[in-house]
Amino acid sequence: MDKIRVGLGERAYDIVIGKGASDLAANLTDRANFFVTDSTVAKIWGARAKETMPDAKWFEFPAGESHKTPETVIDICRKAAELRFDRKARFVALGGGVVGDMTGFAAAIYMRGVGFVQIPTTLLAMVDSSVGGKTGVDIPEGKNLIGAFHQPELVLIDPVFLTSLPITEIRCGLSEILKMGVIFDEKLFAELENKPENLTFKPDYERFIPLILRSCELKAQVVAADEREAGVRALLNYGHTFGHAIELLSDFNISHGEGVAIGMCCAGELAVQLGRFSRTDAERQKQAISSLGLGIALPQNCAVPAMLEAMKRDKKNRNGAITLVLPTQIGKAEVVNSVTDSQIASALEAMYA
Ligand SMILES: NC(=O)c1ccc[n+]([C@@H]2O[C@H](COP(=O)([O-])OP(=O)(O)OC[C@H]3O[C@@H](n4cnc5c(N)ncnc54)[C@H](O)[C@@H]3O)[C@@H](O)[C@H]2O)c1
Ligand SMILES: [Zn+2]
Questions:
Q1: Which ligand is in closest contact with the Cα of 36?
Q2: Which has the least CB within 10 A, 36, 150, 305, 313?
Q3: Which atom of ligand 1 is nearest to the CA of 123?
Q4: Last residue of a domain, one of 122, 148, 164
Q5: What's the 273 CA to ligand 2 centre distance in angstroms?
Q6: How many domains would you assign to the chain?
Q7: How wide is the angle at C-alpha 70 spanned by C-alphas 64 and 74, nearest 5°?
């Protein structure tokens, strides 16, 4: 098993990655544990997890982003109170990003903060949401508008969970790994270009371990350098400003990872048109995305004016200007604030199938 340290001083923690990592939860016997999971994960993995932690108490909510609400977080806290968990309680998130974000947020506010552990079960949660301490919920006005920074005390990443994960969810995780490659690491990007069919069409789970490891290493470095997103952490939003708009305009029929994939293609096209990125690299990015079974074209319901409007509402914007992350080459990107609406519109025009 491999271990990565997220260097955050007194809030530093380990990410343990490898086959059997989730069994290490059995060692968490020093404090009372409160497990939170969703209905799908409970059905598939609940019995195994209960065997690992027989003394833990449980809370389960219905699976899906639509339950990532303040109400569910209050339910988690009320259940913890009913079960008499005190300030020494440890919350344990077993699930994808939805479970992790809400359990983390509940842990941030229950009795003004208790510790929590992440056991991610989706590829997206393994490479992205379980590391870094961003927690929160959605409200009708927007995704993740309520939340807190609250770092976990341990992350246990066990690739065994991927064996039950639908291929569409695997692709969403691959989209975030590819993102990491484009902004930070050409070698990681090239790994995904190599035999993509072994990652999506006939997944070979051993192959995911080095990809998860590298993505977590990169994310850990970024979080340690810039926990609150004042600088380098903003690069992780690559593809996301376009992606969030695509998710929204498709009424969330296009998932987060799929939106980000198309979003990266839009950002690549824009960067080419601005003379910041080569056409060759943009085509290479498109090819890699497409060979992982992800979309590369803007759907018809994402009309240019609606895209611009949705992108302007992104919470990452400053002073009304759309803030974008644009690549300069595969493995390198920068934050850009100076792009005009008409430049964005012109790139979007080139993105329809
Ligand atoms: N905190 C962060 O830094 C951060 C980063 C990226 C994304 N996010 C958030 O993460 C969420 C998306 O995460 P997600 O894609 O993991 O979604 P998710 O948690 O909804 O999981 C997707 C689906 O897969 C199911 N599932 C989970 N594990 C499974 C398994 N092993 N086998 C079979 N089915 C399984 C879930 O029940 C759900 O239906 C979004 O809410 C997003 O905002 C947060
Ligand atoms: Zn994302």
A1: 1
A2: 305
A3: 16
A4: 164
A5: 25
A6: 2
A7: 105
Give the structural domain span for 126. Answer: 2-164
Report pLDDT for 313: 83
Coil/strand/helix, residue 132: coil
107 and 247 both lie in a single domain: no
Atom of ligand 1 nearest to the CA of 176: 6
Q: In this structure, are 137 and 171 located in the same domain?
A: no
Q: What share of the chain is helix, strand, coil (3-state, %, to 5)?
A: 50, 20, 30
- Domain of 96, CATH number, reads 3.40.50.1970
d(CA 324, CA 240): 9
- Could you tell me if 156 and 304 lie in one domain? no
Choose which residue among 121, 170, 237 to substitute to test ligand 1 binding: the one with the highest number of ligand atoms within 8 A of its C-beta.
121
- On whether both 153 and 172 belong to a single domain, the answer is no
Catalytic residues, by residue number, are 112, 134, 176, 219, 229, 233, 237, 240, 244, 256
CA of 119 to the centre of ligand 1 (A): 12
Please report whether residue 171 resides in a domain: yes
Residue (of 67, 128, 142, 139) closest to 103 by Cα position: 67
Residue nearest to atom 7 of ligand 1 (CA): 129
* Per-residue model confidence (pLDDT) at position 202: 82
